[in-house]
Automatic annotation (TrEMBL):
The keyword Membrane applies. It is found in: Cell membrane. It comes from Rhodovulum sulfidophilum. PANTHER family: NA(+)/H(+) ANTIPORTER SUBUNIT F1, NA(+)_H(+) ANTIPORTER SUBUNIT F. Keywords: Antiport, Cell membrane, Ion transport, Membrane, Transmembrane, Transmembrane helix, Transport. This is K+/H+ antiporter subunit F.
Length: 89
């Protein structure tokens, strides 16, 4: 039963990733592309958590936490670059 639920969730996340990639490729401006990239990171975190549930190990949850931290820092750096033109002052 858990395999079926994880499969359905993985398909839903992959559909969300496809729509996010569309926004990333054809976004009207760079702010939309940055938000699409952040959403893509959240979708990847969801896939990693699903793998952790499916395989029953905590290693995937630690990887999801690391991806969340890196994704947050990346989003902040991109936004700062858009606002000021540089990341490090």
């Amino acid at each position: 039963m858990i395999v079926i639920a994880c499969s359905i969730a993985a398909v839903a996340i992959c559909i969300a990733m496809a729509m996010t990639l569309w926004r990333l490729a054809f976004g009207p401006d760079s702010a939309d592309r940055i938000l699409a990239l952040d959403t893509l990171v959240v979708n990847v975190i969801g896939l990693v958590v699903l793998a952790g549930i499916l395989y029953g190990t905590a290693m995937y949850f630690e990887a999801a936490l690391l991806l969340a931290m890196v994704g947050f820092v990346t989003t902040v750096a991109f936004c700062k670059f858009l606002l000021r033109g540089n990341v490090i002052e």
